[in-house]
Amino acid sequence: MEHFKTLSSYINYLGLPPAEHPMLSVFTTVADGYLPCPRESSPPITNDCYTISLKKIIKGDLTYGRTKYDFTNGALIFIAPRQVLQWDSSVIYDQKGFSLTFHEDFIKGTELVAQIKKYNFFSYNVNEALHLSPKEEKQIESIVTNIDTEYHNNQDEFSKDIIISQLSTLLKYANRFYERQFLNRKEFSTDLLSLFNQQLDTYFETGQLQENGIPSIEQIAGKLSVSQRYLSDTLKKETGKTTTEHLQLYLIDEAKNTLLNPQKSISEVAYELGFEYPPYFSRLFKKKEGISPSQYRQKYKMN
Fold first, then answer.
1. Which ranges carry the HTH araC/xylS-type domain (predicted)?
2. In what order do the strands lie in the sheet with 98-103?
């Protein structure tokens, strides 16, 4: 897999005009008249850059998880360094919007380094983009226009600070808009929880638990065609619990049934449920239920 360490090498690979800054590239409809279109397709690649882009689709289908959505409004996409990228020519974009790419070293030594790590949406899949309303789109575009203006000005000692400040503002708005999107997609969130539990049912029923141990959240997310971060954030907004908590609750529910079999020791129950260390199982059970596995067994033992 090809990896691009510098912004210039990545921009050159895409077939875009050279950047005016060694660590920052900005293309907008306002400044350039159109949004330069990169190469039609690419095998898997990685780079050391962050990319924020606003795109509209005029032909082709993209899915949001496993659900198709209307992309006629802008889709704001966030890509983090070393995230694997791959695309083909089946989707055609409108030549409007913007593309903002900056090398990770561009923000080194600034407050944005710590801030950007808090934004989970940089770990979402590309098909989990932020869908903007027309009003939200205008707000984001106004910020990018400010960045673009500074980008094309003669560089001075204030330029980087101003651009970093605008980037910080853009990400804060994006975080707000994602919160709105989560709230507006409760039906999808509920479906996702149902699919999450279905995946666990299948995993248990087919004997994979005994063979491979407790599944990772990444495994489950992969089966659902969503990223691990997006799955956790969606369930957290809808249910107040993370994916790890939902997995633990599922395991505890299974444990309750198994504990009622007096022929099995607490350790055997723990191992059967995929726990490598029985004491950890006992602590988790007590944390969730308020009583230990042995106390639960005593309380609900079959006469």
1. 198-299
2. 24-28, 98-103, 49-55, 75-79, 130-131
The 3-state DSSP class for residue 189 equals: helix
Name the DSSP class of 290: S
Total length of the chain: 303
Q: What is the pTM of this model?
A: 0.61
**What Rg value do the Cα atoms of the chain yield, rounded?**
24
Tens-place pLDDT, residues 19-63: 889 999 998 875 555 566 677 778 888 899 999 988 765 455 444
Domain range for 10? 2-184
Domain shared by 195 and 159, yes or no: no
Q: Quote the number of domains for the chain.
A: 2
Q: Same domain, yes or no, for 149 and 279?
A: no
> 256 with 294, same domain?
yes
- Considering the domain architecture, whether residues 16 and 113 belong to the same structural domain is answered as yes
Residue 263 Rama label (left phi>0; alpha psi -120 to 50; beta): alpha
Cα separation, 18 vs 152, in Å, equals 13
